[in-house]
Amino acid sequence: MGHILKMKPVFKEMIWGGKKLRDVYGYEIPSDKTGEAWTISAHKNGNCTIENTEYAGKTLAELFEEHRELFGDIEGDQFPLLVKYIDANDNLSVQVHPDDTYAGEHENSLGKTECWYVLQADEGTKMVMGHHAKTKEEFVRAVEEDDYDHLLNSFPIQEGDFFYIPSGTLHAICSGSLIYEAQQSSDITYRVYDYHRKDKDGNERQLHVKQSIDVTRVPADVSQNKDFVCEKLENGSKTALIESEFFAVNKYELNGKNVIINDKPFQLVSVIEGSGMIDTMEVKKGDNFVICSDQKETVFDGTMQVMIATL
């Protein structure tokens, strides 16, 4: 019998946050301005605690450091992935993340490539991804002139949409979105534009214009794969959403008993809808687990939608 570790989320209050993480997932959020739940994370800015097994009370980072054999003995000085849910009650800043090279040199951090699955979207909700500048000079001019109406590439989104956001992609999650995000374990965000919003003390949030210009890809590549491979399971289906050099994410729609093989160093499991059993544990919407490398196959039984992120 291997290890299936239940994670206790870490919550982040944000100027743009709301209360859907409580209303939809039943989380005990700190306020009605809660923007993020870091549901599986070993990052120092949001290190999840293990809730079960003999490792209960330890953080994921501690376990990764002390028992690397549970994670396939992978190399590296930090746990490589992070899963979060994002409740955008207002627009997030227009932002960009650096790649590993830039982040390592300037921030002593991993870079941040990420992906989004839209859990909910209010009618008319949009998303920003990419821009219309053809040259770096054109991009800099638009930033200097605050001409974001013409610069940004925005489009409507709906529940079930999936987007892959490589480092260097200008982007913004917009008001009305509830998002599942899997990403490299990094907390480096360069804000280029924040709508001139002021906090309760009358201050605008810090921008990172130079870094944003440094790392934003010009011209932007906003092409997205919409042709997902769907595989029939014994009682359900598995849809391959992304397989990149940084991570892979699969969505499982389960309506009965299924055995899911683990041939990876770990599996990051998020129950996004429904309920049932994972091996001998009762699970419900909002629960998150790390299946360790010593658990070679796992029985999922119930009616549920599950995201699994792996290396």
Topology:
Elements: E1 4-8, E2 10-18, H1 20-23, E3 34-40, E4 42-43, E5 46-47, E6 49-50, H2 60-66, E7 81-88, E8 94-96, H3 100-107, E9 114-121, E10 126-131, H4 136-144, H5 148-151, E11 152-156, E12 162-165, E13 171-173, E14 177-184, E15 190-193, H6 209-215, E16 229-233, E17 236-243, E18 248-261, E19 266-278, E20 281-284, E21 288-292, E22 297-310
Antiparallel strand pairs: 1-6, 1-21, 2-3, 3-7, 4-5, 7-14, 8-15, 9-12, 9-14, 10-11, 10-13, 16-17, 17-18, 18-22, 19-20, 19-21, 19-22
Could you characterize what this model shows?
The chain is 13% helix and 45% strand. The protein has helices at 20-23, 60-66, 100-107, 136-144, 148-151, 209-215, and strands at 4-8, 10-18, 34-40, 42-43, 46-47, 49-50, 81-88, 94-96, 114-121, 126-131, 152-156, 162-165, 171-173, 177-184, 190-193, 229-233, 236-243, 248-261, 266-278, 281-284, 288-292, 297-310. The strands form 5 sheets. Strands 1, 6, 16, 17, 18, 19, 20, 21 and 22 form a 9-stranded antiparallel beta sheet that branches. It has a 6-stranded antiparallel beta sheet with strand order 2-3-7-14-9-12, with no helix packed on it. The mean pLDDT is 97.
- Residues in helix, %: 10-25%
Mean pLDDT metric = 97
Structural class, by secondary structure, is mainly beta
How many helices? The count is 6
Main β-sheet: number of strands, strand sense, barrel status? 9 strands, antiparallel
What is the subunit organization of this protein?
Answer: single chain
SSE string:
EEHEEEEHEEHEEHHEEEEEHEEEEEEE
Distance between the termini: 22 Å
Apparent shape:
globular
Find the count of extended strands (DSSP E, 2+ residues).
22
Q: What does the radius of gyration come to?
A: 19 Å
Q: Estimate the strand proportion.
A: 35-45%
Low-confidence parts lasting 5 or more residues at pLDDT below 50?
A: none
